[in-house]
Amino acid sequence: MVTPRQKELVKATVPVLREHGVALISHFYKRMLHGNPELKNIFNQAHQAEGHQQRALASAVLAYAENIDDLSPLLPAVRHIAIKHCTIGIRAEQYGIVGKHLLASIKEVLGDAATEELLDAWAAAYGSLAKVLIDAESAIYEEQSMSEGGWSGWRPFVVAKRVQESADVTSFHLRPADGGTLPVCKPGQFVSVRAYLPSVGLVQPRQYTVSAAGPDSLRISVKRVAATSAAPAGMMSNHLHESLKEGDCIDVSAPLGDFTLADDTSPVALVAAGVGITPILAMLNSIAKDTPERAVDFFMVCQDRAHFPLRGEVEQAMNSLKNGKLHLFYTKAEGDEARQCEAARRLAPTDLASVSADADWYICGPVPFMQEQVEALKARGVAAERIHFEIFGTGGMSK
Ligand SMILES: Cc1cc2nc3c(=O)[nH]c(=O)nc-3n(C[C@H](O)[C@H](O)[C@H](O)COP(=O)(O)OP(=O)(O)OC[C@H]3O[C@@H](n4cnc5c(N)ncnc54)[C@H](O)[C@@H]3O)c2cc1C
Ligand code: HEM
């Protein structure tokens, strides 16, 4: 339990966390991954290199200190973290390791300011937050294990089929190696996959949306992240494209995620950029199958026809809708191809203006793209509860 005095001490550290939280958490990760190098196999090494995970945890710790008197505003964030943890198979006993390195880091970074009383207060506060997450995660694990065809942690899958979907996206159709069935996967949910990457000598997890699901197989569709002059090639996506062949095995977590289509009859606007098509297509297919009369505005943004993943499936689903409109934006098309789309340019927020005011919005694409659309929708008066988006990364985005 955190005493009132301890809560006051934790709240008193808020200004320090605001200013130096990322430095503290960066120190923490360095310390933990040095002291417990086995954890490099569960933390996304690209998120570490780019500082995304350091910022995600620093902002979670700050939000916790700010809300320690009443944690209810944090419940959606707790659920989001618990879901991510469960797809990576985080276990209760690992909280002790994180706690040990976090407290030692507070002591090392704050120096003399870290009195015994303050450290005790943070130990109690960490224990209390850890319990909230452990409880949320064990509830998810239990639900997964109890559901028909479900499992918790990792399960080996065999690649039944590979399909090239566009210039840089390949789908992998995956079946449980044990020949068993799968739980129901809601359109928009994702799994983690885990593989040993010889290039870094580590096992690494990554998340992929289930772009199609059946009772005994699921499909993920992976964009190959190419190297640029400023950044190296993506580790996992290149490994999957180059090395994961039909008949090979890979570990997969059970589907989870709250970026799912609400059962409703209201008009819906689906907005996808690039490989952000994966959850959006799963939603589109479910509307085409279950509620084809529902009004759908579907916005797709990609470079050109060759970079439109799963295009045939999108067209098929759009054709089964009674009230569907496809708005296609090719950002790099020329000539005839440019004339085959709504506009040969990026999507501008004004392009969304024709959508009915009572629509629910589902958006997936790069963060700056989503941020731009979400801000425009808010400015137009669309309620935050009607705007849903999924980040293909770690950490948040302001709504
Ligand atoms: C919920 C969710 C669903 C997702 N669904 C999909 C999906 O359906 N399809 C899909 O393709 N992806 C999806 N993703 C993204 C996916 O999980 C991976 O992030 C993506 O495949 C890239 O992984 P990678 O290992 O290839 O690249 P990483 O090796 O993880 O690299 C990612 C980026 O970081 C850069 N980087 C790495 N190290 C450094 C460094 N030292 N300095 C500078 N830059 C660096 C790389 O150049 C690259 O641009 C999803 C993510 C989430 C969270
Ligand atoms: C109170 C303790 C903890 C807090 C507040 C916390 C917070 C977070 C947050 C905010 C994220 C980002 C979620 C997202 O946006 O997707 C995250 C991801 C993650 N957490 Fe935790 N976490 C805690 C404990 C742990 C523990 C004990 C482990 C296991 C050692 C762990 C491993 C991970 C991993 C592997 C990720 C994904 C990282 C990535 O994709 O880069 N966390 N956590």
Description:
The chain is an alpha/beta fold and 399 residues long. The chain folds into three domains: 4-146, Globin-like; 154-253, Elongation Factor Tu (Ef-tu), domain 3 (Beta Barrel), CATH 2.40.30; 268-390, Nucleotide-binding domain of ferredoxin-NADP reductase (FNR) module (Rossmann fold, 3-Layer(aba) Sandwich), CATH 3.40.50. Helices cover 41% and strands 20% of the residues. The chain has twelve helices and eleven strands. The chain has helices at 4-12, 14-35, 45-50, 52-66, 75-88, 94-110, 116-146, 235-243, 277-290, 311-320, 335-339, 367-379, and strands at residues 154-164, 169-176, 190-197, 202-213, 218-223, 249-253, 268-273, 296-302, 324-330, 360-364, 387-390. The strands form two sheets. Strands 1-2-5-4-3-6 form a six-stranded antiparallel β-barrel. The chain has a five-stranded parallel β-sheet with strand order 9-8-7-10-11, with helices on both faces. Strand 8, helix 10 and strand 9 (324-330) form a beta-alpha-beta unit. Helix 1 (4-12) packs across helix 7 and helix 5 packs across helix 7 (116-146). It is globular and about 70 Å long. The mean pLDDT is 96. Bound molecules: flavin-adenine dinucleotide (FAD) and protoporphyrin IX containing FE. Residues 44, 46, 49-50, 190, 206-209, 221-223, 225, 231-232, 234-238, 275, 278, 390, 392-393 line the site of flavin-adenine dinucleotide.
